[in-house]
Amino acid sequence: MKITSLADNLSAYSTIEFEHGLSLYIEAADHKLLFDMGQSDLFLRNAAKLRVDLSQVDLAILSHGHYDHGGGIPAFRSVNPHAPLYASCHAFGSFYSTKYIGLAGSIRQDPRLILTEGVLTLAKGITLYAFPALPDRSHIDATLTQKHDGIRIPDDFRHEQYLLIEENGKRVLFGGCSHRGVEAIVQHFAPDVLVGGFHFKNLDPARDADRLRRAAEALMRQSTLYYTCHCTGKAPFDFLKGYMGDKLHYLPAGESVTL
Questions:
Q1: What is the tens place of the pLDDT at every residue in 65-99?
Q2: In the chain, how long is the greatest CA-to-CA distance?
Q3: pLDDT at 137
Q4: Nearest to 250 by CA among 220, 234, 227
Q5: Distance between CA atoms of 65 and 140, rounded to whole angstroms?
Q6: How far apart are CA 148 and CA 108, in angstroms?
Q7: 149: Cβ–Cβ under 8 A, 6 or more apart, which residues?
């Protein structure tokens, strides 16, 4: 399995662009997958520089309904006329932070859009899990909201889904932002490898050292190897790295990893 980061908050090389967003190109289980499409067409430009042919993608997955993961969907549609796009049936809600952070309504009209719920097998060894029952809800970020009947309420992140690829005896889990708590997600799925953001970007190691330390200890209790990115944040990553060592790596735009 080979994973290439096409969009991230950080870049591995001066020639590769970066933005607040995520897009991963995955070659696994005899398929070419695109997991998220960033907030713009930046991932297309980086793909061209990395000689990744996105017209050959046969499965596209949206991790959740935020613009920094699905804003590039129209750009992807312009270069790939055939791949189905799997998104949660809850992905088109009205989501807010300090501003609207949801998806463009036009995306919902895509005839290749497949709305998901529960567990869905996409192909042999490739399974999509929408809104699993996670025991720990204490991590939910109340600064992220959704509008329901005209009222802003905390986002319950039921629009977040997780991609599990099983190949060569390894279980590799992909998540976009782990809004529902990376510790709970890892405990629930127990993957060999987790690839995705931890959503710690708003944590300050000087102020939130105890919170980050508890997270590191919880993640270290699992046998999982971690490749994080995007919303983890550089300072929180550096703090976690000090505790987790070779169990934690960062996957910036332009970098690839083979598992």
A1: 999 999 999 999 999 999 999 999 999 999 999 89
A2: 48
A3: 55
A4: 227
A5: 16
A6: 19
A7: none
Q: Which two tokens stand for residue 192?
A: 């060999």
CA distance 85 to 180: 23
Confirm if 8 and 229 have CB atoms less than 8 A apart. yes
- Torsion angle (degrees, nearest 10) of CA 153, 135, 176, 236: 90
Q: Is 168 helix (H, G, I), strand (E, B) or coil?
A: coil
DSSP letter for 11, please. Answer: B
Token digits of residue 61? 């997955």
Tokens of residue 1, six digits: 């399995």
248: which strand partners? 226
pLDDT band at 139 (very low <50, low <70, confident <90, very high): low
Nearest residue to 12 via CA among 258, 259, 256: 256
Which residue is listed with tokens 């709305």? 115
Q: Which amino acid is at 209?
A: A
Cα 204 to chain centroid distance, Å, stands at 22
* The residue type at 129: Y
Q: Measured between alpha carbons, how far is 131 from 63 in angstroms, rounded to an integer?
A: 11
